[in-house]
Write a structure and sequence with these properties.
Layout (H helix, E strand, L loop, with lengths): L1 H15 L8 H12 L3 H19 L6 H32 L10
Helix pairs in contact: 1-2, 1-4, 2-3, 3-4
Protein backbone atom coordinates (compact mmCIF):
# COMPACT_ATOMS: atom_id res chain seq x y z
CA UNK A 1 0.00 0.00 0.00
CA UNK A 2 2.79 2.45 0.82
CA UNK A 3 4.16 2.19 -2.70
CA UNK A 4 0.77 2.73 -4.30
CA UNK A 5 -0.10 5.69 -2.09
CA UNK A 6 3.32 7.26 -2.65
CA UNK A 7 2.96 6.89 -6.40
CA UNK A 8 -0.58 8.33 -6.27
CA UNK A 9 0.71 11.36 -4.37
CA UNK A 10 3.50 11.70 -6.93
CA UNK A 11 1.01 11.58 -9.78
CA UNK A 12 -1.00 14.37 -8.15
CA UNK A 13 2.14 16.49 -7.82
CA UNK A 14 3.03 15.90 -11.47
CA UNK A 15 -0.53 16.66 -12.54
CA UNK A 16 -0.57 19.86 -10.49
CA UNK A 17 2.38 21.14 -12.50
CA UNK A 18 1.05 19.96 -15.86
CA UNK A 19 3.60 17.20 -16.44
CA UNK A 20 2.88 14.05 -18.38
CA UNK A 21 1.63 11.36 -16.03
CA UNK A 22 3.83 8.33 -15.57
CA UNK A 23 2.58 4.81 -16.23
CA UNK A 24 4.53 2.81 -13.64
CA UNK A 25 5.80 3.29 -10.11
CA UNK A 26 9.38 3.58 -11.40
CA UNK A 27 8.31 6.20 -13.94
CA UNK A 28 6.48 8.24 -11.28
CA UNK A 29 9.57 8.55 -9.11
CA UNK A 30 11.82 9.16 -12.13
CA UNK A 31 9.49 11.96 -13.28
CA UNK A 32 9.45 13.48 -9.79
CA UNK A 33 13.24 13.39 -9.86
CA UNK A 34 13.54 14.81 -13.37
CA UNK A 35 10.71 17.36 -13.26
CA UNK A 36 10.14 18.42 -9.66
CA UNK A 37 13.44 17.88 -7.87
CA UNK A 38 13.15 14.64 -5.92
CA UNK A 39 16.74 13.68 -5.10
CA UNK A 40 18.39 10.90 -7.09
CA UNK A 41 19.01 8.98 -3.88
CA UNK A 42 15.40 9.15 -2.65
CA UNK A 43 14.02 8.34 -6.11
CA UNK A 44 16.21 5.21 -6.25
CA UNK A 45 15.20 4.16 -2.75
CA UNK A 46 11.52 4.54 -3.64
CA UNK A 47 11.99 2.58 -6.86
CA UNK A 48 13.70 -0.20 -4.90
CA UNK A 49 10.93 -0.23 -2.29
CA UNK A 50 8.30 -0.54 -5.01
CA UNK A 51 10.29 -3.32 -6.66
CA UNK A 52 10.04 -5.23 -3.36
CA UNK A 53 6.27 -4.69 -3.46
CA UNK A 54 6.16 -6.25 -6.92
CA UNK A 55 8.13 -9.27 -5.71
CA UNK A 56 5.85 -9.71 -2.72
CA UNK A 57 2.75 -9.44 -4.87
CA UNK A 58 3.80 -11.83 -7.63
CA UNK A 59 6.11 -14.29 -5.89
CA UNK A 60 4.60 -14.54 -2.42
CA UNK A 61 4.82 -18.35 -2.35
CA UNK A 62 8.63 -18.38 -2.76
CA UNK A 63 9.58 -15.42 -0.57
CA UNK A 64 12.08 -15.66 2.29
CA UNK A 65 10.02 -14.21 5.14
CA UNK A 66 13.14 -13.27 7.12
CA UNK A 67 14.28 -11.14 4.19
CA UNK A 68 10.86 -9.50 4.01
CA UNK A 69 10.87 -8.77 7.75
CA UNK A 70 14.34 -7.24 7.44
CA UNK A 71 13.06 -4.92 4.70
CA UNK A 72 10.29 -3.39 6.82
CA UNK A 73 12.49 -0.91 8.72
CA UNK A 74 14.23 0.49 5.64
CA UNK A 75 10.88 0.73 3.82
CA UNK A 76 9.33 2.73 6.64
CA UNK A 77 12.36 5.01 6.59
CA UNK A 78 12.20 5.67 2.85
CA UNK A 79 8.48 6.44 2.94
CA UNK A 80 9.02 8.72 5.94
CA UNK A 81 11.69 10.58 3.96
CA UNK A 82 9.28 10.85 1.02
CA UNK A 83 6.56 12.28 3.27
CA UNK A 84 8.99 14.93 4.50
CA UNK A 85 9.93 15.82 0.91
CA UNK A 86 6.28 16.05 -0.18
CA UNK A 87 5.38 18.18 2.82
CA UNK A 88 8.25 20.62 2.15
CA UNK A 89 7.29 20.81 -1.52
CA UNK A 90 3.64 21.54 -0.77
CA UNK A 91 4.62 24.24 1.74
CA UNK A 92 6.91 25.77 -0.90
CA UNK A 93 4.18 25.68 -3.54
CA UNK A 94 1.67 27.22 -1.14
CA UNK A 95 4.07 30.06 -0.30
CA UNK A 96 4.66 30.63 -4.03
CA UNK A 97 0.91 31.20 -4.30
CA UNK A 98 0.91 33.75 -1.50
CA UNK A 99 0.44 31.36 1.40
CA UNK A 100 -2.66 29.59 2.45
CA UNK A 101 -3.85 26.12 1.72
CA UNK A 102 -2.43 24.04 -1.12
CA UNK A 103 -5.39 22.87 -3.17
CA UNK A 104 -3.53 20.73 -5.69
CA UNK A 105 -3.85 23.06 -8.61
CA UNK A 106 -1.11 24.97 -10.36
Amino acid sequence: MLCEVSADIGLQLLRARGYKLAASYREVFAALRDQIGLSDELAERLMDACAMRKVLTHMCDTIDLDRVAAAVGPALEVYGDYIEWVEALVVEWASDRGGGRFDGCC
